[in-house]
Amino acid sequence: MAIVHELSWSTSRARTFSGCRRRYYFDYYLSWLGWGSRADPERRQAYLLKKMTRLPMFAGDIVHRGIAEYFARRDQGLGWSAEEAIAWGTQELRRGYKESRDGGWKAKPAKSIRLAEHHYAEERISEETGAAGDYGRRYVERIAACFRTFFEAPALDGARTSDPGDWLACEDMSTFDLFDTKVFAVPDFAYLERTAEAEPPVRIIDWKTGAPSDADRFQLEVYAFYARERWGIPTERTTAADVYLQEGEISEVSVGDAELEDALSRIESSLGEMRAVHFDADRSKGDPGDFPMVPENEAARHCSSCNYRELCDRA
Ligand code: SF4
Questions:
Q1: Are 311 and 46 in contact (CB under 8 A)?
Q2: pLDDT (tens digit, 9 = 90+) per residue, 115-124?
């Protein structure tokens, strides 16, 4: 079945939309159809840039994959220790770093690691000055700290030892319909907590590998909304938490009916703004002028780490 371009919604899409409209255009419109090697050159360039990552994001992805691997092994009755996970994660980070540095990613951009730091020859990843060693070490340490929290924090015992039969979601991409639009939700982990109560409560967890941000709470509210829609779990039986693995901190988020109604109206308003500029990218590349770049005076904050700097001529 052919994939068609359509408007969808997710918290990450909404974040991009509110951060920089031009970036949103590159991510969700210009890069569309750019996956073929004979694609329109502009679409192809945007697609290749979209597929790049950065070391903090790559390290975060490794931690998420490692936790999913822990649960997959538990499902098969196999164990995995913190030391084994750290060794695997470190090796994975080094493998990706080398793959990015040595090039060749354009042949398989969807399956290869290409770091924007290498693409833009950023000083922080220079091997000549030795900066790359310090920069890489920061993320080796981050991966180790995150796995230590996951494997050792007493507050995560319930999640770690939960019965596979009680798992509702583990990094599963899923969608539900809202306001006639497909909404993407990927709860990191959700499970039924076994307690004395006849109806077990649902626990939703979002693993975080970076610093807390204002958007974290909203993301969990969307997952709680998803739990209500998908599994029919009332909010009074749902608890949700952001787990900041690097710091070893857990932030409980209230997901009562009032919070979910508020989240719903924020989704509706965000969708309305997106719909106002939406066009069919199967038919045209649209008008970039409808998607303004962030102003020059905000470039340092938004552009310095953006994948699309070469398209915007921003350093
Ligand atoms: S380089 Fe700056 S203006 Fe261009 S897409 Fe990225 S954030 Fe937006």
A1: yes
A2: 999 999 999 9
